[in-house]
Amino acid sequence: MQDEIQSSLIATTRTSGQISSEDLGFQRSLNPEVGKALDEQSERLLALSKSLLKSAASISELKAPVFEDAEDLDNNWRNVVDVVDSLLEKTDICLDEYTGVIKQKDTEEVDAHSLQKE
Fold first, then answer.
1. What tens digit of pLDDT does each residue of 17-44 get?
2. Distance from the CA of 52 to the CA of which of 19, 59, 68, 118 falls in 20 to 30 A?
3. Residue 46 to residue 16: CA distance in whole angstroms
4. Which domain holds residue 14?
5. pLDDT in tens, 76-92
6. Do the beta carbons of residue 80 and residue 100 sit within 8 Å?
């Protein structure tokens, strides 16, 4: 399941990058169906963003930013960055604990403190 989700996210990110590099205003004026398709995809990406941010915020002390459209997302970008940053910090701590880096550091501090007392 993780592989499927990961490949879908990668494909979505690539497609978003490709779309954003196009002249969308021109494409909209050329073909109204393109405009409709772009609006549908924008809504889909906005819904995915909301869900991901809500999920990420649920494991932090932060509240998920609320936005109704892409403009709100642009205006509240700092809140989005705060949620993602908090998630990355928690991930880093978990990885350190898993690999033993934190335990090793704590043990070294205790040993150094013990040596200073002697």
1. 777 777 778 878 888 898 888 888 888 8
2. 19
3. 12
4. 2-117
5. 888 888 888 888 888 88
6. no
Distances (CA, A) of 30 to 33, 38, 60, 115, 116: 9, 13, 45, 76, 76
Q: Which residue has the tokens 């989005």?
A: 80
Q: Is the pTM of this model over 0.85?
A: no
DSSP state of 100: T
Query: How many residues comprise the chain?
Result: 118
Per the CB < 8 A criterion, the answer to whether 77 and 44 are in contact is: no
Residue with tokens 């991901």: 52
Q: Which of 24, 49, 54 is nearest to 36 (CA)?
A: 24
Domain count, the chain: 1
